[in-house]
Design goal:
311 residues, Endonuclease I-creI, four-stranded antiparallel β-sheet, 11 helices, 59% helix, binds zinc ion
């Protein structure tokens, strides 16, 4: 099962004991995943989702808080349809959607703020909205959580609600849909926490830790490799210079300190400047070694210049 599927399965099993929260969650499911159709004779409300567990949760909430029993149809997408006028009126009245402004295609624009006054109800609202319109990428690959909203009003309300809990969400328009999305691992963890997906949250946190450790090890290895390469490159240039001096004027004529440094470099081609300084007698600091090697390089350069002149 995908990570997104795991989160939905977990959230589908969370049933609030308070009626206010049940109503808030159902309102979100109807708003973000439902359509209100008014034919000439009959009205109907349909909630549709690809996920069977989610539709079963809708069924349970309808039964528990409204005593409305309705069949589940379809085999992905799954639908719940309420046609019975008395039930529908009662439901829409409680969800404060009887006179809500519906878009031309039957989408409900926002959930009445009165239903989501309490923090507990706002959590339930986010849970319901995620169940019917949310999805999440595989956290092994990337951190991305999104809600696909049918209207701008839905997207703005969701964004406000997420911000209300101190997280950041952005809105982008994609194929006539308003996408509310989060890209930051920490924010996604917070959202899972707020909605009550605690097991998924633990999985995500574990993955995040492993990923961060892997990254930091990679960073260190890269950094060390870069340093080694730098040392080796510098060292081979120094050795080249020293060999040139040796082959032309010889090392014997060099001042004592330079000759010693040159010999030590030839003896320890892989050593860092600091290490070279420690091998010298008496020991010299890193900048001292650097200074001497630069002198040797200057001598080599002047030999090269002299060679070019004489050619
Ligand atoms: Zn509540």
């Amino acid at each position: 099962m995908s990570f997104s599927g795991e989160v939905k399965e977990e959230l589908s099993a969370v049933i609030s004991t308070s009626r206010h929260c049940q109503i808030a969650e159902l309102a979100a499911m109807v708003c973000y995943g439902g359509r209100l159709e008014s034919g000439e004779r009959q009205r109907s409300l349909t909630v549709q989702t690809e996920n069977e567990k989610v539709i079963r949760k809708g069924f349970t909430l309808l039964q528990k808080s409204f005593n409305i029993c309705t069949g589940i149809t379809g085999k992905g997408p799954y639908s719940l349809k309420i046609r019975e006028e008395a039930s529908l009126t009662r439901l829409l009245q409680t969800l404060k959607m009887s006179d809500c402004c519906t878009e031309a295609d039957g989408h409900i624009d926002t959930v009445n703020p009165l239903l989501i006054k309490n923090a507990c109800c706002r959590r339930a609202f986010l849970r319901g909205a995620f169940l019917v319109s949310g999805s999440m990428s595989d956290p092994e690959k990337s951190y991305h959580l999104e809600f696909v909203c049918l209207t701008q009003g839905q997207a703005l309300q969701l964004q406000e609600m997420i911000r209300d809990f101190g997280m950041e969400a952005r809105i982008v328009i994609r194929k006539n849909h308003f996408i509310v999305y989060m890209k930051e691992g920490a924010g996604i963890v917070d959202l899972l926490n707020v909605t009550g997906a605690h097991i998924s949250l633990m999985h995500l946190e574990n993955l995040r830790i492993v990923k961060e450790m892997r990254n930091s090890i990679n960073r260190r290895v890269n950094c060390e490799t870069a340093n080694i390469t730098k040392t080796v490159n510098a060292s081979s240039k120094q050795i080249e210079d020293i060999m040139l001096i040796q082959d032309t004027q010889g090392l014997k004529g060099l001042p004592d300190v330079l000759r010693k440094t040159a010999l030590i470099r030839l003896e320890y081609p892989d050593a860092t400047l600091k290490e070279l300084g420690q091998y010298l007698n008496p020991p010299v600091g890193k900048s001292g070694v650097n200074h001497r090697l630069r002198k040797l390089s200057e001598i080599a350069e002047s030999i090269r210049g002299y060679k070019e002149e004489t050619l």
